[in-house]
Specification:
Length: 238
């Protein structure tokens, strides 16, 4: 049986423990989380030359001030940009794996089309290491890839009610109501903290992570009421 108690017992810093001086998904934010003893949530996607980088958005607009897609840049090209007016660069997944070692849990969100390329690349990176790793995705078939190919890695399904309007109504309905839950068989759910009290979430007999919690009082409320088993948090010390 998989043991992922670490995912439940220790709060998870959203994109590292970032703040006004330490950008999200930066080495300094990850180091800050490690210093405070937190697990780390991060986002992984592929560059044009298939390097695994830790970056949330499709484009560099918000974090680097340039409207260019990460997928259109090689890793070397990406290194010409810095994060939020700092000297920090977009790191590789391997950089964080080295930092985390065996003692810090990593929750890796797959920014994926669900076709398997990113999933396989991430699995190849972590499968022979001894650290604490779990993966999660909004894309059900990204989660299913791990069910079919890497059952030993804890896998989580991300969900919310407020989905992008660019998605069709049918897709939004399926995702919002967790209609593919049985097909992907997640080990845990990571649900928007604003809607985690919904029956569709609470009736699932797996651990529930609430994201993104931004106040200590909200963390206490969720945990004390049994609505969540752990939190993915930012903007405070858990």
């Amino acid at each position: 049986m998989k043991n992922f108690d670490w995912l439940i017992k220790t709060p998870i810093a959203h994109r590292g423990l970032h703040n006004d001086k330490l950008p999200e998904n930066s080495i300094s934010a990850f180091q800050n989380a490690i210093r405070h003893g937190y697990n780390i949530e991060t986002d992984v996607r592929l560059t044009k030359d298939k390097k695994l980088v830790l970056f949330h958005d499709d484009t560099l607009s918000r974090m680097c001030g340039e409207n260019v897609a990460v997928a259109d840049l090689t890793f070397d090209e990406l290194q010409s940009y810095t994060l939020k007016n700092t000297s920090e660069k977009v790191p590789l997944l391997s950089d964080l794996l080295s930092l985390a070692g065996e003692n810090v849990g990593l929750l890796i969100e797959l920014k994926s089309d669900g076709k398997g390329e990113l999933e396989k690349a991430v699995y190849d990176e972590i499968k022979n290491l001894n650290g604490r790793y779990a993966v999660q995705s909004f894309h059900p078939y990204s989660v299913k890839w791990f069910k079919d190919n890497a059952k030993e890695i804890p896998r989580g399904l991300l969900a919310t009610i407020e989905l992008p309007p660019a998605l069709s109504k049918i897709v939004r309905f399926v995702l919002k109501h967790l209609l593919l839950y049985k097909k992907v068989s997640p080990d845990f759910l990571a649900y928007d903290e604003r809607f985690i009290a919904k029956r569709r979430v609470q009736k699932r007999k797996v651990p529930r992570l609430a994201w993104t919690v931004r106040e200590k009082t909200r963390e206490h409320e969720l945990l004390e009421k049994g609505l969540a088993d752990n939190v993915i948090f930012e903007n405070y010390l858990a």
